[in-house]
From TrEMBL:
Residues 499-594 form the 3-hydroxyacyl-CoA dehydrogenase C-terminal domain. It catalyses: a (3S)-3-hydroxyacyl-CoA + NAD(+) = a 3-oxoacyl-CoA + NADH + H(+). In the central section; belongs to the 3-hydroxyacyl-CoA dehydrogenase family. In the N-terminal section; belongs to the enoyl-CoA hydratase/isomerase family. This is enoyl-CoA hydratase. InterPro entries: 3-OHacyl-CoA_DH_CS (IPR006180), 3-OHacyl-CoA_DH_NAD-bd (IPR006176), 3HC_DH_C (IPR006108), 6-PGluconate_DH-like_C_sf (IPR008927), ClpP/crotonase-like_dom_sf (IPR029045), Enoyl-CoA_hydra/iso (IPR001753), FA_oxidation_alpha_subunit (IPR050136), NAD(P)-bd_dom_sf (IPR036291). It comes from Jiella endophytica. The keyword Lyase applies. One of its GO terms (biological process) is fatty acid beta-oxidation. The keyword Oxidoreductase applies.
Length: 695
């Protein structure tokens, strides 16, 4: 079915005379009756187009021939249904020296410079994704026609880089410079209409009008958007200096320069050379080659491959077309909404009709923020069906229970719904702490029962823990893993164990922060210490975000199941706060007080944490991760690192906790933990699993 849809999609693409042309390497090339050459990039070795040395070398050969043949115009587009091009193939830079990288960049620039200098009109037709080096190829053309579904962006900053194939100077030259810089600094993609409004593309058309738009571009009827006065002003250094100061300030609010140097380097080179394209080109090549050798970039490239590995855990299809969610609370409602946004038909049940109404209203806001397109929002809302009677259970391919963490309640729910499940349907729980063996104990068919542990907020947290137990069938685990990937989440297979992986690792980090607070350390200082290390949020604020009641329940449960030496006892004042309903962000008061926008009111603090405070926070987390590996909860170290990055936000530029431990030195960490254990107690005692990591 997938192959048939791809074939139909390609048939719908306007490829001019190249539709029936035989492939010449990675391109299909043909000339129409008006002497317009159509070059269709359609890599024979990949599902999506990427731009690497073989593609650029082949393009160079075609350009050399076309320089002599002098066609009336050249049209470049993709033959892949998914889009124009997904960017550069990052594999080509792995293991290369700085000199080799610089030489490859210079060769790539020479090819695109020749394309830009061709005497005939060059036109890029863009559909679907057009990212990184793919967008840089399009920018080397005279005109860009975007199909309405196009999405354009420069994601290089996510790899600790900035554009390296001409994007820095070509994007700021053709589009509004501030908007182009913002694209590169944030890595966020831009829809076609927005791209036209800033001058990045020259026209936006439906696919059926591509031929007419190409004809207009060839005849000269498709003109570029003139630069605004503000855009012209950025050609002068004083204006760029002012804008650069604002950019640095905004960037520093999101990322520390010592951790993420790429956006700051990009601002520097634009401020210095933005008025001189050739100088900016030389600076871009030099800067990119330097950045790719930094530890930050190497680790972020590692994270890219971790993501790809986790996506690759999917085997086959889940066959889940209809999902039923039981429980319309914070997690259940968000799971239902996310699945509906991803194209799944969802029925949402709860014993309280009001809860379903609130969940649907919340979903509408999420759809607006994530999907943006009014038609997509409407379709997603159509797929999210309120179901207070639970009629969808009998038709669902997967039922996810997201009820409160009370085992008796969950058993009661399962007893009521299991007889209604159709043959082949899966039953899943979103429990974050309860043992799956205990939950499955009353089921007549535990082989189809699985844990699907999502994280809050579901729309932003990419991880889903796929929790197995002793009686699960391999097919159930396979389908659950495939389902997570199909709704654009990253699956991490784990065994049922106290806290699984993420909560097992996060709880000691949060618990130690409360001990520090109990010792009289300022909460702002504790959070600043973790944030300086690279955590997206300090542990005190995180505890408020999770909810003090939930944090207390999880910590108490883990301490009971792992033993008193594993975690410190919760301070008495924490229990009192929970009793007083001071639960954190959700009640407006917790360890912090919160403003009307839900932001914590933090006192100014000039002091930051010291090395010992940082070790007290981070090393228990690493110890818990190692215990999970040692106990077989999860054994693949790369998936462990990916799960911690995508499930907790563990400093991505450090490459994951296991990678960080190996870089810091396993023996040094073990020795440090023994010192802390002697000083603060057995909760710091290194797990025996560290011995395996030494090997």
């Amino acid at each position: 079915m997938g192959r048939m849809l791809n074939a139909l999609s390609e048939r719908a693409l306007e490829l001019g005379p190249a539709r029936d042309a035989e492939p010449s390497g990675h391109f299909r090339i043909s000339r129409d009756a008006n002497n317009v050459v159509w070059m269709v990039l359609d890599r024979t070795d990949k599902r999506v187009n990427t731009i690497d040395r073989p593609v650029l070398e082949e393009l160079a050969g075609h350009i050399e021939r076309l320089e002599t043949e002098k066609p009336a115009a050249i049209v470049i587009r993709s033959g892949k249904a998914a889009g124009f091009a997904a960017g550069a193939d990052i594999n080509q830079f792995v293991g290369a020296s700085t000199a080799e990288i610089k030489a490859a960049l210079e060769q790539g620039h020479q090819v695109l410079d020749r394309l830009a200098k061709l005497s005939c009109r060059t036109i890029a037709v863009i559909h679907g994704h057009c990212l990184g080096a793919g967008l840089e190829l399009a920018l080397a053309c005279d005109r860009r026609i975007a199909v309405t579904n196009a999405s354009l962006g420069f994601p290089e900053v996510m790899l600790g880089l900035h554009p390296g194939l001409g994007g820095t100077f070509r994007a700021t030259a053709v589009a509004d410079p501030i908007e182009a810089m913002t694209m590169m600094l944030t890595g966020r993609s831009m829809p076609a209409k927005r791209a036209k409004s800033i001058g990045l593309v020259d026209a936006v058309v439906e696919e059926r009008h591509v031929a007419a738009a190409v004809e207009a571009a060839v005849s000269g009827d498709l003109s570029r958007k003139p630069k605004s006065f503000g855009g012209k002003a950025m050609g002068f250094r004083p204006a760029r200096q002012f804008a650069a100061r604002q950019m640095r300030k905004k960037t520093a609010e999101k990322a520390r320069q010592e951790h993420y140097p790429a956006p700051f380097k990009l601002i520097d080179l634009w401020e210095e050379h933005g008025g001189d394209g050739k100088a900016m080109q030389r600076a871009e090549i030099r800067s990119f080659a330097e950045l790719i050798e930094t530890e930050t970039s190497k680790n972020l490239v590692r994270v890219f491959f971790l993501r790809e590995k986790m996506k690759g855990l999917k085997e086959g299809e889940s066959a889940v077309e209809h999902l039923h969610v039981i429980g319309a609370g914070a997690m259940g409602g968000d799971i239902a909404a996310w699945a509906a946004a991803q194209g799944i038909r969802v029925t949402l049940g709860d014993i309280q009709v009001e809860a379903i109404g609130k969940a649907v209203a919340k979903a509408a806001k999420m759809f607006k923020a994530v999907l943006k397109d009014p038609l997509k929002i409407r379709d997603a809302l159509d797929r999210l069906i309120p179901d207070p009677e639970g009629l969808g259970i009998a038709h669902a391919d997967l039922v996810i229970e997201a009820a409160p963490e009370k085992i008796e309640l969950k058993h009661k729910i399962y007893a009521g719904i299991e007889p209604k499940l159709k043959e082949g349907a899966l039953l899943a729980t979103n429990t974050s702490a309860l043992p799956l063996e205990d939950l499955a104990s009353g089921l007549s068919d535990p082989s189809r029962f699985v844990g699907l542990h999502f994280f809050n907020p579901v729309s932003r947290m990419q991880l889903v823990e796929i929790v197995r137990h002793g009686q699960i069938s391999p097919e159930t685990e396979r389908r659950a893993t495939a389902f997570a990937a199909e709704i654009s989440r990253l699956p991490a297979p784990v065994a049922s164990a106290p806290g699984f992986l993420v909560n097992r690792a996060l709880t000691p980090y949060m618990a130690e922060a409360l001990v520090l607070l109990d010792e009289g350390v300022e909460k702002e200082r504790i959070d600043a210490c973790a944030e300086e290390f690279g955590m997206p949020m300090g542990p005190i604020e995180l505890t408020d975000q999770v909810g003090l009641d939930i944090a207390l329940d999880v910590a108490t449960s883990l301490r009971e199941r792992l033993g008193e030496d594993a975690l410190p006892a919760a301070p008495a004042w924490l229990t009192k706060m929970v009793e007083e309903k001071r639960l954190g962000r959700k009640t407006g008061r917790g360890l912090y007080d919160y403003d009307d926008d839900g932001k914590p009111k933090k006192a100014e603090t000039s002091a930051s944490g010291d090395a010992e405070m940082l070790d007290r926070l981070i090393l228990p987390m690493l110890n818990a991760v190692v215990s999970c590996i040692g106990e077989g909860v999860i054994t693949d170290e790369e998936v462990v690192d990916g799960a911690m990055i995508f499930g907790t936000g563990f400093a991505p530029f450090r490459g994951g906790p296991v990678h960080y431990a190996r870089q810091r030195g396993v023996e040094a960490i073990v020795a440090r933990m023994e010192e802390l254990s002697a000083k603060y107690g057995p909760r710091f005692h290194p797990h025996p699993g560290w011995e395996k990591l030494k090997g």
